[in-house]
């Protein structure tokens, strides 16, 4: 079975009474960048956690390399699937390099120390993500963008074939948003890592993703290429907002322009 | 640019060796001072003389030998053992709960343990067929308290610092009331020993009890230490630790059980000695960073040094050891509260 095969099969999930996700099915294509988009509360992050095996669906299965993820050991999963979670706060001071070294953990035995080879992999990952210059600084002293690069370096140090990212550009300024998505694209094109990224930014997701999954109220509303998924009709139906969608003059990616006078009056 | 972080940490063994040296110095001082002064060179020769093939000419007073073997060494040994054990329990609780203020005493785990032990004494089941069962009851009391405090403070899968600490405070108060009640109904002799116990005492552990406690602490401690790298990952949070290959639920059960076992064993032998597990891990992190593979052994050694020194002071000023550690720990807690806002409110 393909090393970067990931398939979501008929999953339904609920935290409490009502279903958060219902009957979700799709296959992640090898070496693609798949974006998961949708409004707040549509179940994007929950879907990512299910795909990473951190939550267990009440119905359906997640297949990783042909096996149900719930039957795999966490260490086995971590060797082929890396996750960049949304919350990366740490209560104790760790250096960035120590954080990235933790990415080698799934490859190490209980009492095994990191070898020179592990350190080389870490150094390479930090070079690749442009984070080596803050290797000796504590993680909690870094800016949001720098910190995200360190966390992505840690995921890269796991030497995964699949990487899942949960809103990697949340709370970042424009320059860092683009920087992170450029990095994701390089990881995908150069390292051939299959990427699944949750994003609430339709323009960024439309520009960098090969395909999009659009969620609405816990169900798949549409799956396909960005130009098929991001349309003014769908945006109005899913987000309840009127928008013009045209094409980016250079890249040709769909470009969303919100129509201000039609934004529903919520605050008044 | 410096890449020293990427080199194999050769400095770890050197740092630990230096701490072992410091520990030996403190042990020598602790053995020396008291109503009878025993010079370190005498201590050294008295100890070596017990080895086969070593024969120093006995030019020291005979009383020195008796005092050293029967009074000071057992007490120094217990100080080192308990100081290291409480530090380890503190480090483990702090990594799992992601809170630098978590500690057996503050969480109420110590008082749960002593309540278990005192119930066993009150019911007359503290030994069975000559085997001390006290540590088992103390362990059960400690573990049940830990589970209780954890369940009370857990909200939506997270353990906020303030609810955790408040739950610990409330459980502590509740158990204190039960302890006071027990003291008021048992005989005067037991009441006196209970009271002294609740303030900690390193000097009245029987040799058999010392053996039982040592076995429990060393075996639990070695298992916990072998998971040091997993503690690093747990500090990142349950979700991140899971993604990096940690079976979080298994680590929780393991840590709560073994850290409670360590706390229970210590409490059943020496009573409640607070704040060691709070102060020492913090000092350890300031000196050596947060990597648990260095922090645990280094912290255990610093904890041993600290408690032997604190107990020597306690002996000299004739105060219970728990009073001395609380006198240091109270202000330290307030200092952490004021400076580590992130850890408290995080």
Quick structural gist:
Chain A contains 9 helices and 12 strands. By secondary structure, chain A is α/β, with parallel strands linked by helices. Chain A has one domain (6-262): P-loop containing nucleotide triphosphate hydrolases (Rossmann fold).
Indicate how many domains the architecture of chain A comprises.
Answer: 1
**Into which percentage range does the β-strand content of chain B fall?**
under 5%
Unreliable spans of chain A? none
The share of residues in helices of chain A is 25-40%
Strand element count of chain B: 2
Question: What sort of overall outline of chain A do the alpha carbons produce when their principal axes are compared?
Answer: globular
- What letter string, H or E per element, gives the SSE order of chain A? EEEHEEHEHHHEHEHEEHHEE
Give the strand order of the largest sheet of chain A, numbering strands 1, 2, ... along the chain: 6-7-8-3-9-10
Distance between the termini of chain B: 33 Å
Number of distinct beta strands of chain A: 12
The radius of gyration of chain B is 21 Å
Helix content of chain B: over 70%
Class of secondary structure makeup of chain B: mainly alpha
- Which two chains share the most extensive interface? A-B, 43 and 36 residues
Instruction: Kindly estimate the percentage of residues of chain A that lie in beta strands according to DSSP.
Output: 15-25%
- Mean pLDDT rating of chain B: 90
